[in-house]
Design brief:
By secondary structure, this protein is an all-alpha fold. The protein has helices spanning about 5-35, 45-60, 65-75, 80-90, 100-115, 120-150, 155-165, 170-180, 185, 190-195, 200-225, 235-255, 265-280, 280-305, 310-315. The chain is built from 15 helices and no strands.
């Protein structure tokens, strides 16, 4: 390829990626906003504070999966520092709003490439972190429903089925086999060899830590209900727990639907789970608000992390 063409090709490709992600975010946010506009709701006088709290909890809930992703990269022998990995994790999350699931991988791998992390290792870590996060969500959903809401058999069985789907590939021996079949060893032999360090202890510890992240996501959903002025007869702690279970089921269901950002699928599941306790109007408003504040929080954090990146990192990415 001639140097002149190469000089302009990569910037053009990056611009196309940014445009695709921006289009996906705009479409998702605008659709959610139109849904909210069609709904007559009576917000709490403190609704701005509740929504700021919800955005903060949502962003904070992404930290445990980001830390787990960094741990996987270290396990695979990659040189990424924790701050670099978290920066790539948060910015890369915006890729979920673009069609398909590949954009998350492209963004995360691209942001770490300048530091020496291989695309193969980043991709393997993304797959394992994502499936493990989903598995932890379904595990804790099962625990919440069994211990606090034993009558919810339909959702208990749904969570058990989803757990089987997302957790099976994360069984260490199965995942190592899948990695070999995908050709990971061909592109990065050292990373493939280090997969042998992956064991049930790693998975168990991850489920415990990732449970904190899901609880924070549930608290963010509960805060949007408070912003809308919707209440339930349940105790506050049980409200947060059912919101946690609802959020996990909605996110995993949306992820498996392959719809960008899980749009509509997430909202439908939240309506089913929250409607009986907070009313259909409350469930709909909360489903829309939690998506809007989530997008806002992700954009703010991603923008800050991009803007305040070390100068050398910025130069290598442009």
């Amino acid at each position: 390829m001639p140097p002149t063409i190469r000089k302009w090709l990569f910037p053009a490709a990056k611009l196309c990626l940014v445009a695709l992600v921006a289009w996906g975010i705009h479409r998702t946010a605008w659709s959610a906003w139109e849904t909210l506009q069609d709904k007559h709701w009576n917000p709490s006088p403190l609704w701005p504070a509740w929504l700021v709290l919800a955005a903060g909890l949502s962003v904070l809930g992404m930290l445990p999966p980001g830390l787990f992703w960094h741990r996987l990269l270290v396990m695979l022998g990659q040189p990424a520092q924790r701050g670099e990995a978290l920066r790539a994790y948060y910015i890369g999350h915006l890729g979920k709003y673009a069609p398909g699931k590949a954009m998350v991988i492209v963004l995360r791998a691209g942001l770490l490439r300048a530091g020496g992390t291989t695309a193969t290792a980043a991709t393997v870590a993304v797959f394992y972190e994502t499936l493990t996060t989903m598995s932890a969500g379904m595990f804790w959903t099962l625990a919440i429903l069994a211990l606090r809401f034993p009558g919810e058999w339909k959702w208990t069985l749904s969570a058990a089925g989803l757990l089987a789907v997302v957790a099976t590939p994360t069984v260490p021996c199965i995942f190592r086999r899948l990695a070999r079949l995908s050709g990971a060893g061909k592109f990065d032999p050292s990373a493939a060899e280090r997969l042998g360090q992956l064991g049930f202890g790693t998975v168990g510890a991850a489920w415990a830590v990732l449970g904190v992240g899901w609880l924070l996501q549930g608290a963010a959903l509960w805060a949007t209900l408070a912003a809308g002025g919707y209440t339930s007869s349940l105790a506050t702690f049980d409200q947060v727990l059912i919101c946690t279970a609802a959020m996990a089921l909605a996110v995993v269901g949306g992820f498996l639907s392959f719809v960008p950002g899980g749009f509509v699928v997430r909202e439908a599941l939240l309506l089913e789970l929250l409607g009986p306790r907070f009313g259909l109007a409350g469930a709909l408003v909360a489903a829309v608000l939690v998506r809007l504040v989530g997008i806002a929080g992700e954009l703010v954090v991603a923008g800050v992390l991009w803007w305040f990146a070390p100068r050398g990192t910025m130069q290598n990415e442009t």
